[in-house]
Design goal:
alpha+beta, six-stranded antiparallel beta sheet, 24 helices, about 45% helix
C-alpha cells in the first residue's frame, strides 16, 4: 500500500515538474515562430520597397482584381445595380478582390492602382504568414526541426518573395491553403472543435479564389470527418465526434457561402458553388499539340468547345496526332515544376533568375527524397492524417497537367514540396546520426547533386569555337540525346536505389512501415524515370545550337543555294532576309550583314509586329487604339524591362532591287555577318529532326505564354515561337577571325531567305517612299504613299548619334529611364484623333533602327502620320515610309 502511494506521489511530482518544462518549450517554440515570421516579412518588405525592380504589382491579371476591388468600393448597398461588366467577376473569383477592398477599408484609403503600398504590405504579411504556417504544419506532423527547416526554406523561397509583390490571387490562396492544413494537423483537433468552423470558412474562401481547389475542399472535409472518427483511438470509431466535425465544417462553410450565393443570385440571377475559370478553353488549349499547349497568336479556333465534355476534348486532341500529344503530355511536368513562378524574370536584389531556378530545383530534389522517406520518418499513428493531407495537397495540384500548364500554377503545391524536402533532409541526417558509416544517405545526396548539375544546361561548359574562348557554341539538351538520357536515368536509378536502402535503415523494427516506404519509392520510380529517359521539348529545341560572338571583327560566312522551284514569274516576287535574333542585338546594330557582297542597310522588321490583323483594331480608352497581339506582348515585355523588339523572334529585312537581281542571277545567297560590338551576339542554328528534316522556329505563329511562362531558358525569357519542320538545305557556314577560318560543320544557322508573291503583276521599278529627319520629336505624314488594296505601309525609324559623339556617361545617367516613343496617328470616321503606340523602339546606344508594317487599308480613317520622340537633343531621328507590295509573313512564299 505504501509502495503504491509512493509510486503515485512520484508520478504526480514528475507530472508537476514536466508541466513547467513543457510550458517553457512551448513558449520557446512560439518565440521562434515569431522570429521566423518577422524574418520572412523583412525579406519581402525589403524586396518590395528596398530593391530596384520594375513594380509588377498591377500587371496582367492583377489589373482585373484591382478593377473589381474598385467596383466593390463604389457599390451602393442600398441600391444594388450590376452592369454587364460584372459577369467577369464570377470568372475572376470574388475572394481576392474582396481582400483588396478590405485592405483599402482598413487603411482608410480608396482602391487605387497607382497607390499600391498598402496592398504590397498586406501581400508581404500573408506571404510571411505562409512561411510561419508551414513551420507549424511541419512541427505538428514530424518534429520541430522539420517545421523550422521548412519554414525558413519558405521564407527564402524565390517565388514566394517575388509574388508577394504581385497582386495575384495565388499568394493569397496559398496562405489560405496552409492555414487549412495547419488546422487539420493540430495535435488535438477533437478537443478544439471551434477550429473546424474556421476550416469550413477558409475552404469556401479558397474555392472562391481558385476554382480548382474544390478537390482540396472535399479532401479536407473527409479528413476532418476521419479525425473525428479517430477521437477515441484507432481501435474504436467515434461516429458522434465524426458527425459533429462534419456539421461544424459545413456550418463554417455556410457562413461564407450564403452571402456569396445571395450576391450571385442578386447580381446575375444564377447560383454556382464553383468559380468558372473557363475550364473547357484551358483544356482545349492545354491539349492542343499544334500549339504545344500554350495560347498562341493567331488564336486557335475554339468554337463550340463549351458544348463538348472534357473527355471528348482530350480524345479529339489525341486523335489529331497521337505522337505529338504524348510528347506534349511528357512536357507538362517540366512546365509545371521546373521553374519557380517568376514570369518577368524579376531579380531579388543580387539574385538573378538563374540563382532562383537553382534554389527551386534544389527544393524539388529534396522533395523527391522526402516523398520517398517523409511518410515513414517520425512514424507515429497520430501523424498519418497530417502526412496524408500534405501529400493530398500536392496531388490535388496535378490536374493542372491536363490544362494550360505554366509555373504560375505550381505555387500552391510548393508548401507540400517544401515540407517534404525538409522531412527528407531530416530523415537523411537521422540515419547518419544513428549510423555514421551508412552509405545509402551519401549515395542519395551524391546522385541528387549530380542530377542537379547534369540537367542544367547553363552549368555545362560550352564547346569552344574559333581561336578563343570568347566564341562559344553549345547545343540545347546536348547533341547526343541517347547518351544524355542514359546518364540521367542511371543517376536517377542510383538515387532511387539509395532511397530504397534508406527505407530499410529508417524502418528496421517495422515490416509494415518498411513496406509503405518501399511503395513510395516504387511510385516515385514510375513517375520520374520517364522524365529522365525521354528528353522533353519543354527544355528547349533538342540539338538547337547557340553560337555567341563577343569580339569585334569576328565574322560568320555562309552560302545558301537558291534552288528555285518557282522560277516562273520571278518578276512578281519580293525577297526578304530572315534572321533569328534576340535581345534587340540586330536592331541595335551589334553586327553588320552583307548579302552577295553588298551591305544590308535596310532596318529589320520584328516579326511580332506583322502578326496582328488590323481589321480587329481595338480601343482601351477613348482616342487610344491598340492591336491585341502587339499590346499583350508590350504589357508583358515592358514589365520585364524589355520592349517587343528585344524578344527572340525572326527579324525580316527587305532585300534591295540590286541584291534581288544578284540572287536570281547567281542562284546563291552569299551571306556575311560581322560582329562590330563588344556586347555579345547570339546566333541560333536549326535543330535536327530526321536525316532529311530540320526544325526551325515558326515564322507566323507566336505565344506570349510560351515566352514568359516557358522553361527553356534558365537565364531569361523563352523563345515565343513554335516548331516548324523544313527540308534540310545544303548551306555552308564558317567562322573567321584575324585571318583564321574554321568550318562550322553540321551547323545550319537560322539565317534564311524567303521569296514572297507580290500583290501586283510586276514589281514597280520606282519605289514610293517618303522620309523626314529631326531631333527630339519628328512627324511623318503618310498621305503621299497612296496605298492600293493589299499594300502595306512599311515605316522605319532610326535613332542615332553623330559619329563624333562618344559620351558613355550621357547614355548611362541622363537618359537611363528615358524611352523613345513611336506612335501612329489618324482621324477616325467621326473626325476624332486616334493614337496607337508602336512599342518596338529602344534607347539608341549609340544607334537603333526598326522597320514596321502598317496595314492602313484596314483602318476606316484619314490623315495618317507617324510621330517619333526621344528627349535628347543630340539624338538624330529619321522616319522613312515605303510601300510593301505583300505581307512578308502571310503572303504565299518559298523558304530558302
Amino acid at each position: 500500500m505504501e509502495s503504491s502511494l509512493e509510486s503515485t506521489n512520484n508520478k504526480l511530482l514528475s507530472t508537476e515538474a514536466s508541466e513547467p518544462a513543457a510550458d517553457k518549450s512551448c513558449s520557446r517554440t512560439s518565440l521562434n515562430l515569431l522570429y521566423l515570421f518577422f524574418a520572412a516579412l523583412a525579406i519581402r518588405l525589403w524586396f518590395n520597397f528596398g530593391t530596384e525592380h520594375i513594380n509588377a504589382a498591377a500587371a496582367s491579371d492583377a489589373s482585373e482584381y484591382l478593377r473589381y476591388a474598385t467596383a466593390l468600393s463604389k457599390l451602393s448597398w442600398s441600391a444594388l445595380s450590376f452592369g454587364p461588366e460584372w459577369k467577369e467577376f464570377v470568372i475572376t473569383g470574388p475572394a481576392f478582390p474582396f481582400f483588396l477592398w478590405l485592405c483599402s477599408f482598413a487603411t482608410f484609403s480608396p482602391v487605387n492602382s497607382q497607390q499600391l503600398d498598402a496592398y504590397l504590405v498586406a501581400q508581404s504579411a500573408i506571404s510571411a504568414l505562409t512561411a510561419l504556417l508551414i513551420a507549424v504544419i511541419g512541427k505538428n506532423i514530424w518534429n520541430t526541426k522539420v517545421g523550422f527547416l521548412g519554414g525558413y526554406i519558405a521564407a527564402f523561397y524565390p517565388a514566394f518573395i517575388v509574388n508577394s509583390g504581385r497582386l495575384y490571387s495565388e499568394t493569397f490562396a496559398t496562405c489560405i491553403e496552409v492555414a487549412a492544413l495547419a488546422i487539420l494537423t493540430t495535435s488535438k483537433p477533437h478537443e478544439q472543435k471551434y477550429k473546424y468552423a474556421l476550416l469550413g470558412a477558409l475552404l469556401v474562401v479558397l474555392q472562391l479564389t481558385r476554382s480548382s481547389m474544390i478537390l482540396f475542399s472535399a479532401a479536407c472535409i473527409v479528413l476532418a470527418f476521419i479525425a473525428g472518427a479517430q477521437a477515441s483511438g484507432l481501435s474504436k470509431i467515434n461516429w458522434r465526434s465524426a458527425i459533429t466535425n462534419l456539421a461544424i465544417v459545413l456550418l463554417g462553410s455556410l457562413a461564407v457561402l450564403a452571402p456569396w450565393l445571395w450576391f450571385e443570385k442578386t447580381a446575375f440571377n444564377k447560383l454556382s458553388l464553383v468559380v468558372d475559370r473557363v475550364g473547357h478553353y484551358n483544356l482545349f488549349v492545354g491539349t492542343n499539340s499544334t500549339i504545344q499547349g500554350f495560347l498562341s497568336y493567331p488564336y486557335p479556333d475554339g468554337r463550340g468547345i463549351e458544348k463538348k465534355s472534357f473527355f471528348t476534348l482530350v480524345k479529339e486532341a489525341y486523335k489529331t496526332s497521337p505522337n505529338r500529344f504524348l510528347k506534349l503530355m511528357l512536357d507538362k511536368p517540366a512546365r509545371l515544376y521546373k521553374f519557380p513562378w517568376n514570369d518577368f524574370r524579376t531579380p531579388i536584389g543580387p539574385i538573378k533568375m538563374a540563382g532562383q531556378v537553382a534554389f527551386h530545383q534544389i527544393v524539388l530534389l529534396l522533395a523527391i527524397i522526402g516523398l520517398g522517406l517523409g511518410l515513414i520518418f517520425s512514424p507515429k499513428e497520430k501523424h498519418i492524417l497530417g502526412k496524408a493531407a500534405v501529400i493530398g495537397a500536392l496531388a490535388i495540384n496535378l490536374p493542372f497537367l491536363a490544362f494550360i500548364t505554366v509555373p504560375r500554377y505550381n505555387l500552391m503545391a510548393m508548401p507540400s514540396l517544401i515540407l517534404l524536402g525538409a522531412a527528407g533532409v531530416c530523415a537523411l541526417i537521422s540515419i547518419l546520426r544513428e549510423n555514421k558509416l551508412a552509405r545509402a544517405p551519401k549515395i542519395v545526396a551524391a546522385s541528387a547533386l549530380f542530377l542537379f548539375v547534369f540537367l542544367r544546361d547553363d552549368l555545362r561548359a560550352p564547346f569552344g569555337a574559333g581561336d578563343s574562348s570568347a566564341t562559344a557554341l553549345y547545343f540545347v539538351q546536348g547533341t547526343d540525346l541517347l547518351t544524355r538520357s542514359l546518364i540521367a536515368t542511371i543517376a536517377l536509378i542510383i538515387l532511387l536505389a539509395g532511397l530504397w536502402l534508406c527505407v530499410n535503415l529508417l524502418a528496421k523494427q517495422s515490416t509494415k512501415t518498411r513496406a509503405i516506404g518501399h511503395i513510395c519509392v516504387a511510385l516515385l520510380s514510375i513517375a520520374l524515370l520517364p522524365l529522365t529517359l525521354f528528353p522533353q521539348r519543354a527544355n528547349g529545341r533538342m540539338k538547337e545550337g547557340i553560337l555567341t560572338l563577343s569580339r569585334p571583327g569576328e565574322q560568320i560566312n555562309g552560302k545558301i543555294p537558291i534552288n528555285n522551284s518557282m522560277s516562273a514569274g520571278q518578276e512578281m516576287r519580293e525577297w526578304f532576309l530572315l534572321i533569328d535574333s534576340d535581345l534587340g542585338q540586330l536592331p541595335r546594330g551589334n553586327f553588320n550583314i552583307s548579302l552577295n557582297g553588298i551591305k544590308v542597310i535596310a532596318p529589320a522588321m520584328p516579326s511580332i509586329a506583322a502578326l496582328d490583323n488590323w481589321h480587329y483594331l481595338k480601343n482601351h480608352k477613348p482616342g487610344r487604339a491598340y492591336l491585341e497581339c502587339t499590346y499583350i506582348f508590350d504589357c508583358l515585355s515592358s514589365v520585364a524591362n524589355l520592349n517587343n523588339s528585344e524578344l527572340r523572334q525572326w527579324f525580316v529585312i527587305p532585300v534591295s532591287a540590286e541584291q534581288r537581281a544578284l540572287i536570281t542571277k547567281q542562284k546563291i545567297a552569299d551571306i556575311s555577318i560581322s560582329q562590330n560590338s563588344s556586347s555579345p551576339s547570339n546566333f541560333f542554328s536549326a535543330a535536327e529532326h530526321t536525316k532529311h528534316k530540320n526544325v526551325i522556329p515558326s515564322r507566323a505563329i507566336y505565344s506570349w505564354e510560351k515566352a514568359f511562362y516557358g522553361v527553356e531558358n534558365d537565364q531569361g525569357l523563352t523563345c515565343p515561337r513554335y516548331d516548324e519542320i523544313v527540308d534540310k538545305r545544303n548551306s555552308q557556314w564558317s567562322l573567321s577571325y584575324k585571318g583564321k577560318s574554321e568550318a562550322l560543320s553540321d551547323l545550319d544557322l537560322n539565317v534564311r531567305l524567303i521569296s514572297v508573291k507580290s500583290n501586283h503583276e510586276e514589281i514597280k521599278t520606282t519605289e514610293r517612299h517618303i522620309s523626314v529627319k529631326g531631333n527630339e520629336k519628328t512627324d511623318l505624314p503618310l498621305g503621299k504613299l497612296e496605298l492600293q488594296e493589299g499594300e502595306l505601309a512599311g515605316v522605319s525609324a532610326r535613332l542615332s548619334y553623330a559619329e563624333s559623339y562618344r559620351s558613355e556617361a550621357h547614355f548611362s545617367s541622363e537618359l537611363n529611364n528615358a524611352k523613345p516613343l513611336l506612335q501612329l496617328h489618324w482621324l477616325d470616321a467621326d473626325g476624332r484623333e486616334q493614337i496607337m503606340d508602336l512599342p518596338y523602339l529602344s534607347k539608341p546606344q549609340p544607334r537603333f533602327s526598326v522597320f514596321l508594317p502598317l496595314d492602313l487599308k484596314q483602318i476606316n480613317g484619314s490623315q495618317y502620320r507617324v510621330s517619333c520622340s526621344y528627349p535628347d537633343k543630340d539624338c538624330q531621328i529619321e522616319l522613312t515610309a515605303k510601300v510593301l507590295d505583300c505581307h512578308p509573313l502571310f503572303s504565299e512564299q518559298e523558304l530558302f
